[in-house]
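Action item from last week, closing it out:
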Amino acid sequence: MSEKQTLPLLPLRGLVVYPHMMVNIDVGRDRSVAAIEAAIAGDSRILVVSQKDPELDDPTAADLYDVGAVAEIRQFLRLPEGVLRILVDGQQRAEIMEIREGETYAEADVHVIDEESVETPSTKGMEALVHGVTSKFEEWVKLSHKIPPEALVSISIMEDMGRLADIIASHLSLKHEVRQDILATIDVRARLHRLYEVLVYELDIMGIEQKINRRVRKQMDKVQRDFYLREQIKAIHKELGDDADKSADVDCYRTALAEGAYPDAVRETIEREIHRLDVSPAMSAEVGVIRSYLDCLIELPWMHTTKETVDMNAARAVLERDHYGLEKIKERILDYLAVRQLAPEQNAPILCLVGAPGVGKTSLGASIARAMGREFIRISLGGIRDEAEIRGHRRTYVGAMPGRIIEGIRRAGTKNPVFLLDEVDKIAMDFHGDPSAALLEVLDPAQNCTFSDHFVELPFDLSQVFWIVTANHPARIPAPLRDRMEILNLSSYTEMEKVEIARRHLLPRQRIQNGLKAKDIRISAGVYPVLIRSYTREAGVRELERVVGQLCRKTARRIVEGETPPIAVTKANLTEFLERPKYHPARQEKKPLVGVVTGLAWTEVGGDVLRTEVNILRGKGKLILTGQLGDVMQESAQAALSYVRSRADALHLAENFYETDDIHIHLPEGAIPKDGPSAGITMATAMISALTGRKVRADVAMTGEITLRGNVLPIGGLKEKTLAAYREGVHTIVLPQENERDIEDIPDAVRASLEFVPVAHMDEVLKVALYN
């Protein structure tokens, strides 16, 4: 019945070889190639056994099935990269007794089962079983069309029932486990029973496929033949029960609707959309749109608000902890919070924080949210040029989504968050619409209680949102939008404030970000002023934080390289941590000069000193302006020249000086664009000095707009300009008389070291600035 043999072992991935079956096998694993070579060197017989897990590269005895097939290698061919292609002929079943792992390949002791010697009684039951298997296989061949009907002739006359079962099993497209189960069934009667069950199952599956095909064909029209494949997929999904996913979604939406709080109009809309989703085909493109819409409606906080806790002492503590300086701004914010405590039902004001980059506008908004106990949401409006970014897209468009306002409210999960609209002065406008116009409805207290997003198409109440807007240039905010805001100006930080901010906030934050402990780095007090004066030039502290971060990174590197902490940073060794200083503050002239006046200017990064030079040249009366001056500044130069011409007699100038002399006005650092009217009196003073030969005081700086009559008009940014003059070592500042009230905003330490001369006319300027 069986005999014991020892054969080389060839594990197979996902393949089962039956007796009387010939198959090509590609072999690439080194141990498998060695086993084949050993078999070829012998009698060409080898044991082929299927792996339980086809993904294993180096299977052990536990990873192989117990029953395989003894096969004879009929042909072999060497392919590139060491791959062998062999043609094997299955001969007999074999049951593995023991596997021995050799150095190059594995061998197996097996009991070879000789089925020809096994007598299978031919009874009526056996004949009926063979007839049933044969007839079912004939049905399968006719339905599948996978093998030619002529093959049935040889099967019908076959007398070996075990061989009959193996040949039929080898033709069927079965799962790997089922094929191995048939191979492992030694008893022929049991094997035929198992094969009969498999054939019945396969025929049932094919019958379902035919049923699907018939259903699809009934749904098709003659003009819809191209629709055939799509309908077939739909019918398959329906037969397999894939509509269950959509039904589960419908149940989830209904549960959320029952548990949530929604206004009546919103609830009706959600119910209507759920019904649409329920009746829509699962493969319909409309299903995705309905789901997105329902997700948005259900997740929006239609009636949910965060409980506001306005404790003035706690709010003051939060603002003081998060920000150093900005005392007036903090007081204004606390005033608003006090009103919220007394009249919580009133609409919150729309605060517009205006200031240079890095002065803390965005972080101040987050502090206000913490002080009020509300959620905080921030969106950046810089560069937005599409109205749909604010109002959303209509659902008729592919990929439609809500606008940024509704999406922010959705993320917050409450209808009364603190909402920060960052960089509102950088909104653009093109053919897609004007986003700033869309913001009017968002920020107008009379309209935002019924804000309508194009995607949602239902009014949403934004009146309880605390709106905060930030900008660098308030003049660039559209007037209708600016009219709805309370403007709070955040001025530049003084040097003393920057030192405290660096010590209290910037150094601890950068130390944590760079993996340092408090004991690892020591920055002496004298280092911070050097960093501020020589390495940064800004109104805020953003660049200062980068420089402090660079010190921390250098310190981290020294510690990693073996230096013992703490690492001390002093004025003496500062250049070891940083490059050479970028700026040299002491640039003022030490002695009086003719035609050179120190002016004061305001830039996006704070105040700056603007040296103005004038030369008088023999020519034809041209006014030459250089230094990248903007239109407003060029007009100021023309106005200053007109004033000088009108005062020619009083200044003892030649009557025709403007016809015989060219006047060249130059503002150094010509690569930097400059504009604004505040240099008017500076250019007029420089021209008069150059024309009369009178020297200008080196310790005087000035700012103010000039008229044709010589009147001095007020300017903005006095605090920033004064701080720049203080930094440059100026002692006297000439300013418009109407700006005298702004002197109170200047820190006491700076104000005490400077002399302020308010003037109303150019004659007063000349008395202060020029030597007789």
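Closing note: Residues 317 and 453 are 38 Å apart (CA to CA).
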